[in-house]
Design a protein that fits this description.
Strand content: 5-15%
Number of strands: 15
Strand order of the largest sheet: 2-1-3-4
Radius of gyration: 34 Å
Distance between the termini: 133 Å
Largest sheet: 4 strands, parallel
Structural class: alpha/beta
Number of domains: 4
């Protein structure tokens, strides 16, 4: 009898994972490429007798990095022991990666677990020549990706320079509208949202003058006040310190929206020359925005230590030695019976650092307060300093009344839409269970309530201005200020002094120099007189109120 030979068993069919990716969300929404990729991948698998084990769909993610949910899910599955598939099938290598280094990293990582990456349009073997060709192809894919990105960015920057919106979510206070149509493309712009813009104005008002002129507030205090008064972010959430800081520092609110501001990879700010500035409607004036920057800088730990921001020491953080420029700090003697301002450089380094100046605290405080009383808080001086700021009061009131009208109109429109909607439901034209109906009703109710509340607050702000400011009212305000400055126990005294005197230099035990910004002085005076909302029309960061040589004062004079 002869020996029978067994036919060799056929190797098991390979199992393939299909990876489908499109670069943008718009492609995914319009289904431009995914169905075609799926059809070609399935046909390729069937032609080789491979079974499709699983499909990984990546809609709207770039292949320049590995921060892709479906991609990471696929890699995690492929690294299982044993893997559920033998092949990752892609339309082209660029669908898998557009970074040559990361492409090779993942290909080798998968190969160690027995999984291959196969392109249906770029078939290559495993020999050295094929590996070299694959590296060249992926290198060109990376180059092409960077070139496309460069050209796209250039077009988007030009679009921004023309004042158009490139997409993404609009900042608080704005909404996106269709400005024009060019061919099949809709060009969009930002316009002020009357309801949300009132929140932005409120944040600036709190930062510059506080609640009812109580004094400038810090980021945390602003966020706390907004949340306590049920003023919410665009999403309806609570304000945090970071959200308030962005509102106060974003140039968008003064009418200059900066596109290409940060690097999306490391979130670092790009150089100014790479920004594209779009001119948009401003919510606050240039002067108000700059005043907010000055306020933040003044409260910055780099300028003033946090312990001085709310320190009970009158001149803490603003008093400096005129010899070395070091801070003058508090020193005590006789168990606190005596208190002095003394040069911190000398206290820290001895006479080798600075010969030092020491002045009794009460003497120096009194000298500063007396000088401010005599030279600033006098009717004729204040009228001259405030100048045409008060003349802008009527224009400001007119703008605010126009803004209130917009808010009232929006509240009325929302109320009318709700009325028509309820009528349609009663008439049976719309079922109360229609998709999205409840969401639409809630949205309209929120718009109506929020617009009405913002209009009420804006009207209240106008009413608080009171009667037209006159020399008599300025005299009454100046008298009250001088009295408050003499109240050593009052909180107003410290806030007033630090608002108008940003720096006190002690030149000797008999002479000091006081410097302050004109804007800060105007802000303080106008807030007290009822014109705080128009005070930032004129800005100066230089010590303008030292206009005469009599601004130097000797502690002994008082």
């Amino acid at each position: 009898m002869g020996r029978a030979r067994l036919a060799p068993s056929a190797p098991p069919a390979s199992k393939a994972a299909l990876y489908l990716r499109v670069s943008t969300g718009r492609q995914a929404e319009h289904d431009l490429s995914l169905p075609d990729q799926r059809r070609q991948l399935e046909a390729f698998s069937a032609g080789r007798g491979w079974k499709v084990a699983v499909e990984f769909l990546e809609p709207g993610n770039t292949a320049t990095d590995d921060k892709r949910p479906a991609f990471q899910e696929m890699i995690e599955a492929a690294m299982a022991k044993p893997p559920p598939f033998d092949v990752i099938l892609v339309h082209s290598f660029s669908r898998f990666f557009r970074d040559q280094f990361l492409f090779e990293f993942y290909v080798r990582k998968l190969a160690k677990n027995g999984v291959k990456v196969v392109s249906i349009t770029q078939e290559l073997g495993d020999d050295p020549m094929s590996q070299m060709m694959r590296k060249i192809m992926t290198l060109f894919d990376e180059y092409q990706s960077k070139e496309n990105g460069k050209h796209t960015l250039r077009a988007m920057k030009e679009n921004a320079r023309q004042g158009f919106w490139n997409g993404s979510r609009p900042p608080l206070g704005y909404r996106v509208i269709i400005a024009e149509q060019r061919g099949s493309k809709l060009k969009k712009k930002l316009e002020i949202d009357p309801v949300q813009a009132e929140k932005v104005r409120k944040i600036y008002k709190l930062a510059l003058i506080g609640v009812d002129g109580s004094g400038p507030m810090g980021l945390k205090s602003i966020a706390t006040w907004l949340n306590a008064n049920n003023i919410r972010t665009k999403d309806g959430g609570k304000f945090g310190i970071d959200a308030v800081h962005k509102v106060l520092t974003r140039t968008t609110y003064k009418g200059e929206h900066r596109f290409n501001f940060t690097d999306h990879k490391n979130r670092c700010r790009k150089p100014d020359e790479e920004h594209a500035v779009a001119k948009i409607p401003a919510i606050v004036t240039e002067a108000e925005w700059q005043a907010a920057q000055d306020h933040l800088k003044q409260r910055s730990p780099a300028v003033m230590h946090s312990r001085f921001v709310n320190s009970p020491v009158l001149l803490g953080g603003i008093c400096f030695c005129g010899l070395c420029g070091g801070a003058m700090t508090l020193r005590t003697g006789k168990n606190g019976a005596y208190r002095y301002y003394t040069c911190s450089t000398k206290a820290r380094m001895g006479k080798d650092g600075c010969v030092g100046i020491t002045v009794p605290m009460a003497k120096l405080d009194d000298a500063v307060v007396s000088h401010l009383e005599r030279k600033l808080f006098q009717t004729d001086r204040l009228c001259n300093l405030m100048g045409n700021v008060l003349d802008r009061r009527e224009a400001w009131i007119e703008r605010r009344r126009s803004h209130v009208g917009e808010l009232r109109k929006r509240a009325a429109e929302a109320a009318n839409k709700l009325t028509r909607l309820y009528a349609a439901i009663e008439d049976g034209l719309v079922g109360d269970g229609a998709n999205g109906l409840k969401d639409r009703i809630r949205e309209l109710e929120a718009i109506k309530v929020e617009a009405k509340a913002d209009a009420d607050r804006a009207e209240a702000a106008i009413e608080k201005l009171g009667p037209m400011i006159t020399p008599e009212s300025i005299e009454r305000m100046a008298t009250a200020t001088r009295e408050a400055l003499r109240d050593a126990e009052g909180k107003y005294r410290r806030a007033q002094v630090r608002a108008v005197a940003q720096r006190v230099e002690v030149l000797s035990t008999t002479e000091i120099k006081i410097m302050g910004g004109r804007t800060e002085l105007l802000r303080t005076m106008a807030a007290s007189a009822g014109a705080h909302s128009v005070l930032t029309e004129v800005r100066s960061s230089k010590p303008k109120w030292r206009a005469r040589n009599d601004s130097n004062v000797r502690p002994s004079d008082s």
